[in-house]
Input
Amino acid sequence: MIFLPESIKRILERIEEAYKRDIMRRRAYYSSISKNGKTYKGTDTVKFQLETFQEFKASLENGTSPLLTCEEGKEDEAKIRLMHAVYKWFEPLGMEDIYRIKNDVYIQRGLKSRIKKLSKNLKTKEESLCLLRFLNYAYASSWGQEDENYEVRDFRLVESEEKFEKILKKYRDAEDLTANEGTVDFTTIRVALVPIDEVSIYKDKGIWEEYRQFIERYLVCLKISDLIKMFNLWHDVRETAIYYIYVPK
Output
């Protein structure tokens, strides 16, 4: 038997929330769904989807789902089946909902209010509003190609330009995003990207050796990509982008 990790529990909760939001929005997933001689149409297809999903979720939580049972030594294969079964519930959802289910955004308290104050100044209005739009849609957007695949975005306030410069020197992979030319000219606010890749997270979580042994065990497996996705899901390994933002008072 396999266990249900916290990462999947979180995804299940967020899928349920997404379906409930769509009921409130009066969305329709399909033109019609028929089951046991009964036909559901329009917005009722979302209610049907929610009810069916809640049964699926409950069976995982109470341990009665056949997806949790497997032969000894076949645990990894069972985990992959469960992963795909969970992801299948994404199908009727829009991309914004899927991003909100899979991704997380953390914004340090006081950061947005500091930026909003600068947006009232004519000189810094454009760059402030640009940054606020990014923060507001950070679940589904990125600064550029260099950070588009990160599932966790962590925005942190830097109190002085001196501290900002120290961050650029401290982290080898740090990049001053506002130093590059773009559609908006940043003259006051500065943003540095510090990426945290999977290897760094494995080491921080103390599972680097476990991951290496896992990969060696399946080195010639044709489903290695699924296996890595499963390993990362079970250990809640998600590449992270930390944005250090200097906003003068």
Q: What stands out?
A: The chain has ten helices and seven strands. The two ends are 56 Å apart (CA to CA). The chain has a mean pLDDT of 93. The longest helix spans residues 6-24.
